[in-house]
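User: Structure please.
Assistant: Input sequence and predicted structure:
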Amino acid sequence: MLTTDQAQERAHDIVRRATAAGADAADAVFAADAATEVSVRLGKLEDVGRSESEELGLRVFVGQRSASVSTTDLSPAALAALAERAVAMAREAPEDRWAGLAPQERLMHGAPPLLDLADAGEVSPEQLRAAAEEAEEAARAVPGVSNSEGGGASASASVWALATSHGFAGAYRTTGYGVSASVIAGTGAGMQRDYDFHSARHRDRLDAPADIGRRAGERAVARLDPGKVASGAMPVVFDPRVGAGLLGHLSGAIAGSAIARKTSFLLDALGTRVFAPGVCVRDDPHRPHGLRSRPFDGEGLPVSPVAIVEDGMLETWLLDSASARQLGLEPTGHAARGIGGAPGVTTSNLYMEAGKVPVATLIGDIARGVYVTELIGQGVNPVTGDYSRGASGFLIEDGEITGAIAEFTIAGNLIAMFGALTPANDLSFRYGINAPTLRIDGMTVAGG
């Protein structure tokens, strides 16, 4: 694996080649990664995989015309040809008045924040296999589990670098580890499947494989013999595994490109109340060893924690440089850059703050409702906010979670859903996007 300095130099080198070939401006991304994955099933080794890659992406500007190219051939001759081809492509591209590099005066300078995104350990395939076997064995040991889809474990390391022709160069390294288990409970037509997994930047922060497996087994068994739910309007409680998806709909609706195209259900919502008082949504790129932490954004701008929703009020759009120019605003440090194409927009460690009530209290006054643990299908209109998803989970009766239910649909409109949302106090940071248990009153539930 290259060092961050070597990765940074790779990106800087192709930018120099592009400007020498006639580009007025350019930026480049270099990414290298190596990963090992091991999977087992029914106690036997099923697969061992190893992947390594190095890729480079270049974007060039000739006036207001631009082009993007990428390659895995990093030989000097290939890079020289790549730069010349990119400039030739840009000269033939249509003009885009909004495209361009990030404002030079906004670029990050100085030492990046220390985010502790990588550890120094080496993990052998034998160790990964042992973790995968332990997770699956614990899942299969849960009474009622009848079969297994397998256990898995992985380890990866990567380095990512960005360089621009107007003065930015930076790189950072990350590691990642994961353990998972997926099992089946019951027999015949009554079989039910569920899973659990955990990912972390540092291996010593992973949940114990046996705990991951046990949760997978218990979840599968709990889903056995699902009943039906009668249709009607009722409270819906979202398990944290699925509730975080609502924050994904929020971030998509406030992305600068959606606002500029006028294709968002929150088009006129900036500075207005979109959630109930007390609800706060934050984005924290500086979270130590966070799964989506980063020291700078995809255009070289500094990043910092930001309140997206404060006390229910929508405080900001998410803007890269192009959408900021189009809207007459400043970029917010949320640009995301892949190997190919222009930057887009993304959040980092997005989360909804914990509320003040325990989960038991959140559901304690629900005479009849549903607790959702799985959502199926897409069913979300980003322009209108209309929301309709297939679901499975558990019935809530007289303030208690009771029997499993399946084959029902939950529906509403995200504007109304956000306004009626109440968070519990059980937030934990397990994923890239995190939310506590969420309750939304007045949703439409349609039974099968």
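The chain has two domains: 4-221, 226-448.
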